[in-house]
Specification:
This protein is mainly alpha-helical and about 230 residues long. It is built from 13 helices and 4 strands. β1 and β2 form a beta hairpin. The longest helix has 17 residues.
């Protein structure tokens, strides 16, 4: 077979599971990169949401935690979880993907990103597979970036859910052991202020004013009890 890396990459990107299986059966490693520095087949299969291809590559030994993206800027679980790619996320977790994402980085974790979108079922899946409900990260943003975006540089799953006004996600995280603090309350206030200022439809789904108000009551009551 001529140029297995190219053939494997193209087949993975297009969702051609038979071609992917054929290339792997010829002895090609599952983590081959086209031209030695391109994206892996798993990267392209996840990016294009082809769970059958993802299943084949993981069964062949592809690294579920390998860097993915044009610049190696993310991982497969971090990409798939907040995008409702449940089958892909389950396959990655079954193959041993770290539910907390990369270690020793300032990137938002899969759970933080998913909580920010209010994806309750995916949040529950990540928690069930061992994601920490309290793991916070300190984002490294350009000066003034946090103020412009309307959130704190220190983010946690609970603060992200509160910022988006996602009532059911907040309730789930609290039920699973997330501990509120004043930073979470501030994130909620920032999210409320940003939602009120938006005059055009946002690409970020947000809760209603009623949701924000209920979250505030829940967080303030939890703080009193802590």
């Amino acid at each position: 077979m001529n140029d297995p890396p190219r053939v494997l990459s193209q087949a993975a990107a297009s969702g051609d599971d038979q071609q992917v299986a054929a290339v792997l059966s010829s002895g090609a490693p599952p983590d081959l990169r086209e031209n030695g520095s391109g994206r892996t087949a798993l990267d392209l299969a996840v990016w294009n949401n082809h769970p059958n291809v993802v299943r084949i590559l993981l069964a062949a030994g592809a690294d579920p935690d390998a860097e993915m993206g044009e610049y190696g800027e993310t991982t497969a679980l971090r990409h798939s979880a907040p995008r409702r790619m449940r089958e892909v996320a389950q396959l990655l977790l079954d193959a041993g993907a770290n539910p907390n994402g990369r270690k020793n980085t300032n990137q938002s974790t899969p759970l933080i990103l998913t909580a920010a979108q209010g994806e309750v079922e995916m949040v529950e899946l990540l928690l069930d597979r061992g994601a920490s409900p309290d793991l916070a990260v300190e984002l490294q943003l350009v000066e003034g970036g946090a103020e412009k975006l309307g959130f704190s540089t220190r983010v946690s799953p609970l603060s992200s859910a509160a910022w988006g006004g996602h009532l059911e996600t907040v309730r789930l995280l609290l039920a699973r052991g997330a501990r509120p603090d004043n930073q979470v309350l501030q994130s909620l206030k920032n999210g409320m202020a940003r939602a009120e200022k938006e005059t055009a439809p946002s690409t970020h789904h947000r809760g209603t004013r009623h949701d924000f108000a209920l979250i505030r009551e829940i967080i303030e009551e939890s703080l009193k009890l802590s």
